[in-house]
Structures are given as structure tokens and as C-alpha cells.
Amino acid sequence: MHIAICDDNIADRKHTERLLGREADKRRNDVSALYIDSFGHVDALLRAPMIYDVFFIDYHSDELSGIKLAEKLRHAGVMAPIYICAHTQDGESNPAITPIKVETDHASWGMELYEIFKPLQPSSLCKALDHAASLIGTRETPLEIRSKDATHYLTKDELCYIDTRKTDMVLYRTDGSTTHLINTFRELWHTFENHSEFICIGHSYIVNTMHIKQVTLTKIIFVGGSNLRIPLSQSGKIRKAIRKAK
């Protein structure tokens, strides 16, 4: 299991390294050894974040908080659990680990985010590592989509459909936001063709059947209320494709 620490305070960073090092010694005979990388700068962490199975973040700067760094990791494609280190109000030790709910621009953030309290306790670290280990091999691989300015990593829950009728194709998320893509139709379909949830409607749309509420003779109606007009001759084929996809 690969572990990343990102802490802008060198003393705290070294302390976390020591605690995780002791845990690694305890698990030396386990099937999965612990590999620990430690970072003091965000840029270094973001160079190759996808290799890590769990993150411990304690970062405080005027420009970037731990939550904002977690959001950067999510946008870089990370699905692994992230633990944000926080101080207790009374300064006493607290072994609890609590989920963090984050309000972001996207309806589904597609990742696990937790608060872990300082001073870090071996018991809470052990619990965090056990949880991360249980997720290895079970996480959904994000779908990679390219726009003019960035590469986007999305979960199936986030993606509603893509309008592919024009060269400037548009991705519609379940939260209502849109992204203009630079992928070709062939590149896009290559991304989705092995995911049974997605169907191709001619060269007009790529649709996520997970979010379809109803198919009428002339429309696809999505759970969120949006809809697509379809040719009358296509409704039967689309219903059949949806049944096959599910």
C-alpha cells in the first residue's frame, strides 16, 4: 500500500512519518507492505498522485488549505481516501475519525474525505490504514475526458450525457454544469464502450443509462428533469439498449 503525507510543517511531517514507520514495522509480514512518501510542497505531491492508496494532509497556507488540496487531488483523478489532520479544540488527544462533507461545484465528489485529529494516535492511524487497504482494488477508475484547458476525471455518477452532434462536443454533468470537449467522437466512444451503462445514439449523443428516468416516443427524460429529443424511429432501439445495459 502506497501512502502519501503532505505537511508544510517539517516537525509535524516527521512525526507523522515516524508513526507510520512504526505501523509499517508492525505490518512487515503482511501481504501488502507499506510504502511511505512524504512531501512538504503541493507541486511535488501533484506530480503523480494516482499511485497512492491513502493521503494524510496537514497543509495550511494563505493560498491553499487542506480541503482545497483535497479538491485538487480529486480533479487530478484521485479516488483514494484522504485524511485531513485537524487540531482538537481543547488540545487533548482524540482517536475519532469523522467524515467531511464538502460543498463543491460538483454534485458528486466521488471520493472519501475524513478528518483525523492531532496529536495523531496510533489507533486512529491503524484504523485509517485498515480502511484504505480494504478499498484497494474496489475503487471505480475515473473516466478521463479532455477539454481545451484541462483533463477532467469523472465518476459515472457525475456524467449525464455528451452531445456529440458538432465538432465542439459538450459534456453535461448531473449537477447541470457543462464542459466543452476536444476529444474526437472515436476517442470518446473508446473511453465509454467497455462501460455497459453508456449507450451511443447514432453520432448524436453518448448517454449514461444510470440517469435515465423515462424514454418516450420522442424524448429521453433524465432523473434531474433535463431531456433529449430523439427520432421517433429510435425510441424502441434505445429502450432495448437500456435493458441490455442494465
Give the SSE layout:
Blueprint: E1 2-7, H1 10-26, E2 35-39, H2 42-45, E3 54-58, H3 66-75, E4 82-87, E5 97-99, E6 113-118, H4 122-135, E7 143-146, E8 151-154, E9 159-163, E10 170-173, E11 178-180, H5 185-192, E12 198-201, E13 205-208, E14 212-215, E15 219-222, E16 227-229, H6 235-245
Parallel strand pairs: 1-2, 1-3, 3-4, 4-6
Antiparallel strand pairs: 5-6, 7-8, 9-10, 9-13, 10-11, 12-13, 14-15, 15-16
CATH H level of the largest domain: which superfamily? Response regulator
Rounded mean pLDDT is: 86
* Spatial ordering of strands, largest sheet: 2-1-3-4-6-5
Biggest sheet record? 6 strands, mixed
Q: Helical element count?
A: 6
Return the domain count.
2
Instruction: Determine the structural class based on helices, strands and strand pairing.
Output: alpha/beta
Integer-rounded radius of gyration: 22 Å
From the 3D coordinates, which CATH architecture of the largest domain would you assign?
A: 3-Layer(aba) Sandwich
CATH topology type of the largest domain: Rossmann fold
| Beta-strand percentage range | 25-35%
Distance between the termini: 34 Å
- Which descriptor suits the 3D outline? elongated
Q: What share of residues is helical?
A: 25-40%
Number of strands: 16
Uncertain runs are: none
Query: What is the C-level CATH assignment of the largest domain?
Result: Alpha Beta
SSE topology string: EHEHEHEEEHEEEEEHEEEEEH
